[in-house]
Amino acid sequence: MQKIKDFDIREKNSAAGIVEQFRCAGFQASELAKAAELIAEMKREKAAVFFGFTANLVASGLRGVIAEMCRKKMVDAIVTTAGSIDHDVIKTLVPYGLGSFSADDIKLHRSGINRVGNIFVPNKGFILFEKKMQQWLGEFCRKKTCFPPSGLGALIGSRIKSKDSFLYWCAKNKIPVFCPGITDGAVGLQMYFFKQENREFCVDVTADMDALAQIVLTADKTGAIILGGGISKHHIIGANLMRGGLDYAVYISTAGEFDGSLSGARTSEAKSWGKIKEKGKAVHVCADATIAFPLVAAALKEKKVF
User: Fold this and answer.
1) Which of 161, 11, 175, 194 is nearest to 88 (CA)?
2) Residues 275, 281, 301, 303: which is the catalytic one?
3) pTM (2 d.p.)
4) Is 233 helix (H, G, I), strand (E, B) or coil?
5) CB distance 133 to 201 below 8 Å
6) What is the pLDDT of residues 192-240, one digit of tens each?
7) Closest to 148 (Cα-Cα) out of 79, 190, 203
8) Residues 201-206: contacts with CB within 8 Å, 24+ apart?
């Protein structure tokens, strides 16, 4: 049994040094240290790594960490929500603002500001997004009329010029971005508008299933880093049913399991379904990903994991 050790803040500590101290601190600090170790093991074992996250995290500053992981080819595939595409593009067009959780939402609405927690997103961004999307969809459809979501994401990424964008790096490094719920966001609304005058245009979500299955079934080992829950989380663990489950899984989430939700489900529950192997290594960190994951990523980068 390891002893609990007090934090030593008398010396200058790097991110790797802080996470190392987490190991014997107890509570979620120790789970976070385990998560960093397990991600490093995924990479050492050359597992195919699936990276899942939700749109709210792309609205936050965590987008920079996501983009860096894609730049360094830390992951082999991304599974995310439609809003991640929205925010990634819009943040290349207009800045987001830091507001307050207790802001007057009626005043914000009348001022053309949308609130994501304590992050303010100006309506102007969605107006610019509409112009870009309608232009890009027109360009895409001159060559082809039906796309899988990953194909559409790659094309959007190829049009973005900002190196702060995770879609830019995914397109550049040929990392597929799977988005099974692509209609549930501004990007879906723009596709609907475009289709009114371009009836031949379609997005086939089933077309990505084969590409996803190929990664799952041809990998010697698979691992997952999942921030948050919802469709991003389930699409990854559900796909890995086809191989008897993930070999490695790291969840970082604030959701509770008391109501039986998928978002709050622990890694142990996934083993009951065969979504994580019975002998699979897994860690669940109960924490806000905007706090926890930059520490993990910085520690891994210092140790040259990526």
Assistant:
1) 161
2) 275
3) 0.97
4) helix
5) no
6) 999 999 999 999 999 999 999 999 999 999 999 999 999 999 999 999 9
7) 203
8) 201/137, 201/141, 201/145, 201/146, 202/145, 202/146, 202/147, 203/146, 203/147, 203/148, 203/149, 203/152, 204/146, 204/147, 204/148, 205/148, 205/149, 205/180
Token pair belonging to 193: 């508008």
The answer to whether the beta carbons of residues 256 and 226 sit under 8 Å apart is no
The amino acid that residue 109 corresponds to is H
Which amino acid type is present at position 253?
S
**DSSP letter (8 states) at residue 10:** S
d(CA 33, CA 36): 5
275 has catalytic annotation? yes
The neighbouring-strand residues paired with 120 are 97, 115
Nearest to 51 by CA among 176, 184, 209, 188: 176
